[in-house]
């Protein structure tokens, strides 16, 4: 069983059977090195058998900052990832590092499958994403109930937006709760960066619903980063 690359480089963020989602960031320095790293990853993975049937997908996105790569993988469980690290990861990374020396592997976070997934624009349902907007929220300490409450507040604000600043070109938002209880990651798919910017800049001052999101108890910070889909791999015959 070998790796299969998908033409639209899009993982199914609600894939059935997913028990753990791992998201990591690499820094590579320039757009040219981003492209080279993606090709090195493709070569390293497609030249080897798929490492474990418990790995359901592995995808890479290139940051619009011209520097970063976002890695997203779906696993049936946490142990599957640890077994991969022990038996298969080093050889792949060594080949990638030989092709693109100096990669900085910044951080790895563990998440549950999406707690909530909401459509943004019914007219864009099923569209191919042109951009992935990653919104990371951080909290003062571990509290699963607070994670869920914050996500619920964001979903309420999005619903409140529907008649004020419709999310034209928004495909869907997928909210992941970190395993350690301190973070939420929203992976929002849009048809284009322009569609996202038009939504973000429209509608005037924030209303009460969004104010409640930004002033949520225990929220210590948040950041938004944009990525273009580059490579999505899954097991194939």
Describe, in plain words, how this protein is organized in 3D.
The protein has six helices and ten strands; from the N terminus they run ββαββααβββαββααβ. With 237 residues, it is α+β, with helices and mostly antiparallel strands. The protein has two domains: 2-111 and 228-236, Alpha-Beta Plaits; 116-226, Alpha-Beta Plaits (2-Layer Sandwich), CATH 3.30.70. Strands 1, 2, 3, 4, 5, 6, 7, 8, 9 and 10 form a ten-stranded antiparallel sheet that branches. A hairpin with a 5-residue loop joins strand 8 (170-177) and strand 9 (183-190). The protein is globular, with a radius of gyration of 18 Å.
CATH class of the largest domain: Alpha Beta
Q: Helix and strand string, N-terminal first?
A: EEHEEHHEEEHEEHHE
- Summed over residues and divided by their number, the pLDDT gives a mean of 94
CATH structural architecture of the largest domain: 2-Layer Sandwich
Tell me the CATH topology of the largest domain. Alpha-Beta Plaits
What about the largest sheet? 10 strands, antiparallel
Shape: globular
Using brief descriptors, characterize the structure shown.
single chain; 237 residues; alpha+beta; Alpha-Beta Plaits; 10-stranded antiparallel β-sheet; 6 helices; globular; oxidoreductase; Antibiotic biosynthesis monooxygenase
Layout of strands and helices, then pairs:
Blueprint: E1 2-5, E2 20-27, H1 31-46, E3 55-63, E4 68-75, H2 78-87, H3 89-99, E5 104-111, E6 116-119, E7 131-139, H4 144-161, E8 170-177, E9 183-190, H5 193-201, H6 208-214, E10 219-236
Antiparallel strand pairs: 1-10, 2-4, 2-5, 3-4, 3-10, 6-8, 7-9, 7-10, 8-9
Helix pairs in contact: 1-3, 4-6
